[in-house]
Amino acid sequence: MLAKIIFIAVITVILGITISNFNKEFKVYITIIFGILVMYMLFTELKEYIQEFVNIFTKYNIKTEYFTTILKIVGIAYICDFISLLCKDLSYESVGKKVEMAGKLIILIYSIDVIRLFLDQVLLLVNG
User: Fold this and answer.
1) Residue 60 DSSP class
2) pLDDT digit string (tens) for 44-102?
3) In terms of Cα–Cα distance, which of 75, 79, 5 is closest to 46?
4) Contact 72/64 with Cβ under 8 angstroms?
């Protein structure tokens, strides 16, 4: 997987350098397409591992709410980081910072749900 991403990155850089000599606007499009392609490749690979986690949660009778919420938090972190870096690449660093801040606040909101679910589980174990 990593070798594929590195290979595509090298092709993207070479293509970006070559095309930017003719039209700088296309460099942005190439960068965006590369980012989307890499995210697609990673999420496709991740799909198998997510199913393994769901099976573990099911095997031990753990509510899948925990896993769903944690997965949302991780997804938000990666998407916000990707968008923030893209904004920085396009010289919109201020917009990227706002995306990072919004992502952190949304992660905080979802974290409260995880803490609540965790406390519910602990109280259930303590009270029998």
Assistant:
1) T
2) 888 888 888 788 878 887 777 777 888 889 889 989 998 998 888 888 999 999 999 99
3) 75
4) no
